[in-house]
Amino acid sequence: MFFTVVFFKYPAIINTVLMSRFIKINGYFLCVFFAAALLLASCKGKDPEQKVVATVNDSPISLVELQKDVASYSKAQPASRITSQSMEEHLRTMIEKKIMIQEAMKKGLAEDERFVETIKKFWEQTLIRELINTKNREWAERIYVTEDEIQKQYQRMQCTVTARVAKAKTKELAEGIRQKMLRGEHIEGEETVDSCFYEDVKSSALQNAFDMNSGEAKSFDSDGEYLVIYVIKNEKTALRPLKDLHDHIKESLLEQKKQKAMTDWMEELKKSSTININTKLLKAVSNGK
Predict the structure, then answer these.
(1) 12-30 burial: b if 16+ Cβ within 10 Å, else e
(2) Which one, 113, 245, 270, 285, has the greatest CB density within 10 A?
(3) CA pseudo-torsion sign 248, 254, 252, 227
(4) Following DSSP, what letter does each residue of 143-184 receive, concatenated?
């Protein structure tokens, strides 16, 4: 949050530099963000009710700013105690920070390319984080886990699976591979998954193996391709009672659903976007040219 504090707290210092500086990010001028921050900060400074607890070279530190700083620290450090001495220490830190920022501005560091790039990354990361948080709040209102889902997940966790797996580009090729596997024929490029537990499998397509019987073969969609699975052996193993694992399973399933919602949402965004890739340039860079 350092840069946000800087932009909102020190309009007098950064006004000249940042108001004249345009940072273009994906077609948008970042200076709009800066200008809005400065405007809000300027309006706040004109509030006649605003109490100033200190000034540094005519740049004010308001009582509200100090209180927010102390409250933020207290929240991060619950064991800390707020006393007159600690308030003075917080104010001293804010004064020192303001002095250093003023000195950095005098040396023109705000115009340094590395500084501008840092601001760009900070802005992008903050924007993306806020978007993801917004979507997570939306999904939290409609994503849930049923008791039936928990029971099925518990049953999968009791299994260890040994299987043959192979990839195919099309559904037709996948069906051909499936038939060959049932006949016991070897498939070029196939792999064997040996005695694995459900928790060890990250591929959602391969997780289907735990719902299959020994000797069964099926194909599943997998990242634009098809994954063919032939289950050699599906065995039951000892597991703690469901009541001991219930909450853990529920939380795990909830996270899986959130992750799937995120992946599906991103795929929809990609489909609705116009994306052009300079493959020639990309290939040249990849080859070190």
Answers:
(1) bbbeeebeebebeeeeeeb
(2) 245
(3) positive
(4) ----HHHHHHHHHHHTEEEEEEEEEESSHHHHHHHHHHHHTT
Q: Coil, strand or helix: which one is 149?
A: helix
* Structural contact between residues 211 and 149, judged by C-beta atoms closer than 8 angstroms: no
Burial-class residue 203 by CB neighbours within 10 Å (0-12, 13-18, 19+).
middle
Looking at residue 156, its pLDDT comes to 93
User: 10 Å Cβ neighbour count for 125?
Assistant: 10
CA angle, residues 227, 259, 158, in degrees to nearest 5:
60
Paired with 151 in beta bridges are: none
Q: List the one residue out of 50, 52, 16 whose CA is nearest residue 35.
A: 16
What is the mean pLDDT, run by run of 10 residues, along the chain of 289 residues? Answer: 37 37 43 43 50 92 91 89 89 92 88 86 92 92 95 94 95 96 94 91 90 95 92 93 95 92 91 90 81
The first and second tokens of residue 43, run together, are 């309006």
